[in-house]
């Protein structure tokens, strides 16, 4: 039983780490000399230095800020969910499900899915040079992991006597 | 005591006015629409009292130009606005020098007004200090500023979440209180003679909140023991 608890806890922490990495690291779209989105753009200069520059003005600003907001919200909900899980471990009556924690993970799943979907559908549609970077992949992996975590919390029951 | 305080403050002020300089404040950047008016504010901080010889001067440097031209000067109690340069008939002084405010109003903006405006204020004898610049950007349509929509979405969602949780706990508290008061009145009606013991009973039996707390305490201890 302790192993199961540890595994669920580790899954939740993995979700948090992946979400934070996807949100903070500016690597949703990369080329050999550029690493960009969602906050700003890193450009490799001829001298071998990386310069921190603004995202160009032709990006649709409203969609970019929506992606920023929902990925930050996903991180917040996942972290809050961890604290709620620990609280529910101690206060939940026996035999009951971890619904409150599951609700937070569900919200986190919704938010990161919204962020990843908007980014995939709106940005980089015309054949720009480059490919999807680490943060983009981590965002989609977080979608799967948070979903699994959410289902786990909705199904898990506290140990009865 | 009061005199000592007054003396130290006067000494500190006189020392401070020797070593600190005048500090001029303007905005960092101003965004405005074509054809509208914009108010460029300028204020300063100085340890000296505002002197009657205070001066404000504004300089304009267009984007890409190397040097700026002077467009406004206030000195000796009178304001002198631009009457030959790009801002003739469009500049107005709306500041209050005695309140350390040297703001100007530019009317009917055009795309050629993009540039940097520098305000320099002098408060004799405090004349040493840096001037401060404000960048004017003129748009056809004011763009969405970075982070406004992001902050709005995050704030609204978190606010809704807090509201929902608060309402949930409030409902639970109100329902518990209502059940408690109902059972209190029931027990109160039944036993008027044996008030003492029956009231105690009612308090012990009909307090669902306390019951729940006691039950969950037991369960918590059991679950802890079992988990270990």
What does this structure look like?
The complex is a heterodimer of chains A (161) and B (228). Chain A has 161 residues and is α+β, with helices and mostly antiparallel strands. Helix content of chain A is 62%, strand content 9%. Chain A has helices spanning 2-24, 61-91, 99-122, 134-155, and strands at 29-30, 34-36, 41-44, 50-53, 131-132. In chain A, strand 2 and strand 3 (41-44) form a beta hairpin. With 228 residues, chain B is α+β, with helices and mostly antiparallel strands. Chain B has helices at 2-19, 148-190, 195-205, 208-227, and strands at residues 23-26, 29-33, 38-40, 42-45, 55-62, 69-75, 78-81, 91-93, 104-106, 115-122, 132-139. In chain B, the strands form three sheets. A six-stranded mixed β-sheet of chain B has the order 2-11-10-5-6-7, with no helix packed on it. Chain B has a three-stranded antiparallel β-sheet with strand order 3-9-8, with no helix packed on it. A two-stranded antiparallel ribbon of chain B has the order 1-4. The interface between A and B is medium-sized, with 21 and 23 residues.
Structure characteristics:
heterodimer, A: 161 residues, alpha+beta, five-stranded antiparallel sheet, 5 strands, 62% helix, 9% strand, elongated, B: 228 residues, six-stranded mixed sheet, three-stranded antiparallel sheet, 11 strands, flat
- What percent of residues of chain A are in strands? 5-15%
Strand order of the largest sheet of chain A: 4-3-2-1-5
Query: What is the CA-based Rg of chain B, rounded?
Result: 34 Å
Determine the structural class of chain B based on helices, strands and strand pairing: alpha+beta
Tally the beta strands of chain A.
Answer: 5
State the order of secondary-structure elements of chain B, H for helix, E for strand. Answer: HEEEEEEEEEEEHHH
Largest interface: A-B, 21 and 23 residues
Q: How far is it from the N-terminal to the C-terminal residue of chain A, by CA?
A: 13 Å
Strand line-up of the largest beta sheet of chain B? 2-11-10-5-6-7
Quick check: average pLDDT of chain A? 91
Q: Helical residue percent of chain A?
A: 55-70%
Largest sheet of chain A: 5 strands, antiparallel
**What is the succession of H and E elements of chain A?**
HEEEEHHEH
């Amino acid at each position: 039983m302790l192993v199961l608890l540890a595994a669920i806890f580790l899954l939740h922490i993995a979700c948090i780490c992946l979400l934070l990495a996807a949100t903070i690291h500016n690597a949703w779209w990369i080329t050999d000399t550029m690493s960009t989105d969602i906050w700003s753009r890193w450009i490799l200069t001829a001298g071998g230095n990386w310069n921190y520059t603004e995202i160009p003005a032709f990006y649709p600003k409203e969609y970019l800020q929506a992606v920023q907001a929902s990925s930050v919200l996903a991180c917040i909900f996942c972290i809050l969910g961890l604290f709620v899980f620990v609280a529910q471990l101690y206060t939940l009556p026996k035999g009951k499900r971890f619904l409150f924690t599951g609700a937070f993970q569900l919200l986190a799943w919704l938010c990161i899915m919204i962020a990843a979907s908007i980014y995939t559908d709106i940005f980089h549609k015309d054949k720009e040079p480059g490919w999807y970077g680490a943060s983009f992949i981590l965002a989609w992996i977080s979608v799967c992991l948070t979903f699994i975590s959410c289902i786990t919390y909705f199904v898990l029951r506290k140990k009865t006597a | 005591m009061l005199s000592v305080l007054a003396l130290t403050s006067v000494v500190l002020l006189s020392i401070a006015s020797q070593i600190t300089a005048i500090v001029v404040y303007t905005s960092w950047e101003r965004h405005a629409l074509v054809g509208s008016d914009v108010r460029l504010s300028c204020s300063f901080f100085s340890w000296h009292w505002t002197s009657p010889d205070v001066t404000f001067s504004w300089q304009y440097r267009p984007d890409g130009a190397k040097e700026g031209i002077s467009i406004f000067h206030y000195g000796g109690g009178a304001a002198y606005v631009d009457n030959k340069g790009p801002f003739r008939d469009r500049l107005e002084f709306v500041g209050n020098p005695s309140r350390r405010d040297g703001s100007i109003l530019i009317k009917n903006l055009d795309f050629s007004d993009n540039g940097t405006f520098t305000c320099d204020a002098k408060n004799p004898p405090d004349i040493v200090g840096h001037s401060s610049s404000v960048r004017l950007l003129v748009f056809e349509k004011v763009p969405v500023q970075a982070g406004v929509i992001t902050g709005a979405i995050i704030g609204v969602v978190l606010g809704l979440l807090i509201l929902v949780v608060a309402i949930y706990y409030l409902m639970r508290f109100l329902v518990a209180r209502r059940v408690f008061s109902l059972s209190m009145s029931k027990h109160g009606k039944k036993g008027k003679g044996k008030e003492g013991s029956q009231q105690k009973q009612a308090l012990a039996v009909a307090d669902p909140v306390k019951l729940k707390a006691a039950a969950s305490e037991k369960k918590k201890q059991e679950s802890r023991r079992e988990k270990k």
